[in-house]
Amino acid sequence: MTSGLLIFISKQGGFIINMTSYDKVDLIENQIFEQRKTVDFDTRELTIEYYVNKYLTNIEKDKNEIYVPGYQREFVWEPDRQSRLIESIILGLPIPILFVAETKDGRLEVVDGSQRIRTFAAYLSDDLKLEGLEKLTELNNTIFSELPISRKNKIKNTPIRMVVLSETTTEQVKKDLFERINRGSDVLRNMEKRKGIYQGPFVDFIYNECVKNPLLTKLAPLSKVVEKRQEHEELILRFFALVDTYPNFTTQKRGIGAVLDEYIQKKNESFSNNEKEEKLKIFNRMLSFVDKHMANGFSKWKDQAVSRVFFEAVSVGAHLVIEENPDFRPVKLNPGKWLSDDKYFKSLVSGKYRTHAPDKMLDRIHYVRDKILNVR
Question: Would you tell me the crossing angle of helices 114-124 and 79-91 to the nearest 10 degrees?
């Protein structure tokens, strides 16, 4: 037994070697040790005011110390959910831990907690009016600046715990962390849910035809975090929904998620072969246009993962140009330079909060359209 092996002689005269339980324990422990070495982190406890300042300072230059990566730029929480978070803070209830990853330049990339940080920022900036509160009803229809100074200080000085992954943390570890956290709290992403709930011809069209265009993979590279979570299908749905509802977007009260749910349900009920042919034509035409004229496809910079907000602006903006002038041939464009040169456009795609307010959506789309047409 000391060798850790049991040796049996088979009927055929050969040897069969089995590991003992001692060897199995060693293998288990060694594997655990190796995997734990890949996760290096420390824990900090800082105030809400600290997080907000680090998030908002230099956000327009995309140099804020705490920043939200492109694949999380969409702000999806509705005002009532944001309000409940603020209510929980005021009531002294526990708030989930924030997870960030330190980058080589010393910035902190939010892995989990982007909606919370942006809610804090919106509230302290008076961009969130509380609503739908059932406990602290007297706070409904109020903003932060209307509170007494003592209460404002208590909110700003509320500590929130943060786990900081070291800069040596690999992309795979960050991906695993993001998936484990989100699969624990929100098992399916938006499009994964819709595929199961809203089955029909329009959904089949997206999954069986549109997504198979190889230009989509080329022009819209995905973050490892979402590459297997039906993100391309989500982008296709957004393109069609925004094209069909332009310019009368109705996302102000319901949010983009509810609008997309309603759109996909109605399309399943009315989708015809004629519409299918037309939609496939405008989708493929738009991809070809972007491939020819956008230096980085739907991304801001070469090889950078695409964000939903940027994809919407570029895809619908390009569609409007084609509709207005099918023969228009611009030079090769680099949308990344628009971010560097134009503070206005940066604010529209920064994802600070209210990313899908109708006015912001229109401004982003029109900005891209006008840039392509060279009228800005």
Answer: 80
DSSP letters, 178-241, are HHHHHHHH--S-HHHHHHHHS-SHHHHHHHHTGGG-HHHHHHS---TTTTTTTHHHHHHHHHHH
Q: Tell me the C-alpha distance between 296 and 302, whole Å.
A: 5
What is the Cα Rg of the chain in Å? 25
Report helix, strand and coil shares of the chain as percent, to nearest 5.
Answer: 55, 10, 35
| Half-sphere exposure for 17 (CA within 13 Å, toward CB) | 4
How far are the Cα atoms of 71, 168, 169, 202, 342 from residue 103, in angstroms, in the given order? 16, 8, 9, 41, 26
Strands 159-165 and 41-47: antiparallel
Question: 210: closest CA among 225, 220, 197, 223?
Answer: 220
Q: How far apart are CA 251 and CA 113, in angstroms?
A: 23
From first to last of the 376 residues of the chain, give the pLDDT tens digit.
444 555 455 545 555 555 566 576 667 766 665 655 556 678 899 999 999 999 999 988 888 999 988 767 677 788 899 999 999 999 999 999 998 988 888 899 998 899 999 999 999 999 999 999 999 999 999 999 999 999 999 999 999 999 998 877 666 766 666 666 655 444 446 787 788 788 899 999 999 999 999 999 999 999 876 777 789 999 999 999 999 999 999 876 677 888 999 999 999 999 999 999 999 999 999 999 999 999 999 988 887 888 888 899 999 999 999 999 888 888 788 877 776 666 677 777 776 777 888 898 999 999 999 989 885 5
